[in-house]
Amino acid sequence: MSAESDMDFSDNDGDDYDYYGEQDDCDMETVDHSKSDPEYFTFSCLKVEEVDKLLNESIELLSDSLQVTPSLAKVMLHAYEWNAQEIINKYKENAIEVLVNSRVKPRVSTIQASRSACAVCANTPAVHNFSALACGHYFCNDCWAMHFEVQIMQGVSNTIQCMAQDCEVRAPEDFVLSHVPKPSLRERYQQFMFRDHVKSHPQLRFCPGPNCQV
């Protein structure tokens, strides 16, 4: 090969040739990714304690505003994607509609079930050993406990429903915990509750990294 065909990578001053142009690599840090990347968004990393605080602020606001228990506030917030102000406004207009949409109350009035015998096990325990949700479907506490244990072991928490056929009323946290005596099961249930709260919140996402709690 002749000398004329060799490529000369030097400029007139003898400096090394800049393969990547004259732009300094440091300038890359000044690029506004929010404009160049359509999938870019700003975010903050939160610990479990910080998320708990964020959720509890909404729960406390709704509970105080509507004079309902924190457990019922959680059910409504889960149904309305944690928009406490929207719930408060709609509750003032039509409280029953909000409670029905949140599955706190049934869509149609139900006839109060008899407490003479449990509809699941047919046993006849003492009257004080029966419990019911707002729908009025009474079952013995032993059957409630078994129902909740099965649901929790399957990973269900916020969406546990009444045992009555076709009843969509959901069991609030305090009702579930009052029928779940096992500490390990209670802890498992509350872990699932936290997970579901995060998933239902429009501004929260779990880190996709394996075993990451952020």
Structure report:
With 214 residues, the protein is mainly alpha-helical. The chain has 2 domains: 44-105; 106-198, Herpes Virus-1 (2-Layer Sandwich). 40% of the residues lie in helices and 3% in strands. The chain has helices at 33-36, 48-66, 70-79, 84-93, 95-101, 141-153, 173-177, 183-200; strands spanning 130-132, 138-140. A two-stranded antiparallel ribbon has the order 1-2. Strand 1 and strand 2 (138-140) form a beta hairpin. The longest helix has 19 residues, at 48-66. It is globular. Mean pLDDT is 84; it is low at 1-11.
From the structure above, extract its key features.
single chain; 214 residues; mainly alpha; Herpes Virus-1; two-stranded antiparallel sheet; 8 helices; 2 strands; globular; disordered N terminus
SSE map:
Elements: H1 33-36, H2 48-66, H3 70-79, H4 84-93, H5 95-101, E1 130-132, E2 138-140, H6 141-153, H7 173-177, H8 183-200
Antiparallel strand pairs: 1-2
Helix pairs in contact: 2-3, 2-4, 4-5
Radius of gyration, in angstroms, nearest whole number: 29 Å
CATH superfamily of the largest domain: Zinc/RING finger domain, C3HC4 (zinc finger)
How does the major sheet shape up?
2 strands, antiparallel
CATH topology of the largest domain: Herpes Virus-1
- Work out the oligomeric state of the chains in this entry: single chain
Percent of sequence in beta strands: under 5%
